[in-house]
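tool_call: predict_structure(chain=1)
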Amino acid sequence: MTGEVARRVADEGLTVEIGGNRFVDCNTLISIGGQTLLRVEANPLRLSLTTPPDLPSGRRVSVVQNNLDSESGSVIVVTADSNVSIFWGKGASSPVSMVLATRLDAHRVHLKLDLRPLGILVYDDIDGLHVGGNALCGNTIRGATVAISLK
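tool_result:
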């Protein structure tokens, strides 16, 4: 089995929990303008967060499988065996968390999400996953190529 095929087999059955919602076997969690914004892989735990170049806030983030692109000057990525975090505000006295991922087991990842520092109104809290003026809670999205698509 090649490395890519083995990784896909290992990630089958992956459930990502965000704001009381379950995303099961979703290739891309969030896209914006047809471009992948957020993707999670579990074995090993890897995050990808990439903003489109025409984002109105002008804030650029390019993290691919936990690796920070040199153009993401204000971004911090912190990794450990079962945790990956992405922060905005490198050099600031108090960086702001955007994505906090914890692998709960081989097929389940819990995510805390707040993309508002990028000018994207997507975040989660005790009431659910907020996307614009909508709140999603208690949903299961299964097998979607893109779970949430933003324009």
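agent: The first helix runs from residue 3 to 11. Proceeding to next step.
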